[in-house]
Amino acid sequence: MKIVLIKSVLLIAFFLFAAGCSVNGGKGANKNAYITGFPTSVESALNSAKYPLNEKLVNTISYMGNEERLAYDVYNRLYSKWGIKQFVNIASRSEYQHITAVQQLVQKYKISDDVNFTNIDMIPLGYMNIPIEEMKSGAYDISKIQNLYNDLVSKGLNSEIDALEVGCMVEVTDINDLDAYLETAKESNAADVEEVFAFLRQGSYNHYWAFDRGLKNRGVADGCCSLGTQNGVNYCHPEYPQK
What we know:
CATH topology: Ferritin
Order of helices and strands: HHHHHHHHEE
Largest sheet: 2 strands, antiparallel
Strand content: under 5%
Distance between the termini: 46 Å
CATH superfamily: Ferritin, core subunit, four-helix bundle
Number of strands: 2
Strand order of the largest sheet: 1-2
Number of domains: 1
Helix content: 55-70%
CATH class: Mainly Alpha
């Protein structure tokens, strides 16, 4: 009964994940090929045997899925305003890939079509396979994600500098959350989730430095570090790995 409940929670979680994202016609949506292939280690993790997932870990998968598509939506929106290449490159070549990785992780643990729901409303399993292009951009069922999206887009539409600063903010938020979620995966001995989350975090490191370079190229000498600490969040991270 407990396993069925966790699987049910996972289905609900992904419904929330899938219900709020789309390409939304951004400039990058039509001009750049989407990257969906994964490193061998990630492919192996997604194809490995299933691990027991507790409810906390299920929730982290859902939340991280929402957070990755927030980045995708924000970057497409800001690219449509400013045409800055970092946004379209990261959205189409990385965030799309990250959303796909989380989607496949959810598909791996999905419940079967013959499960009889007794304590929740029936949710179509098709939401687990909905194409990213058909998801609704900028609308989220998690209020924290919705508020963050609204605030970030509002700031990013002010200027190119503000837009690039938003990129720094998104990536630091991702990394902070992934640091915590990786610990949750380790505690649960869920090696597949851990591998996927580590993959997402490495991408966020790369994106942080891309936005840092974008700011420096526009005369902001300190790059992302110019943001300092805001609302208790430190956006200056010279210790992040660089490729």
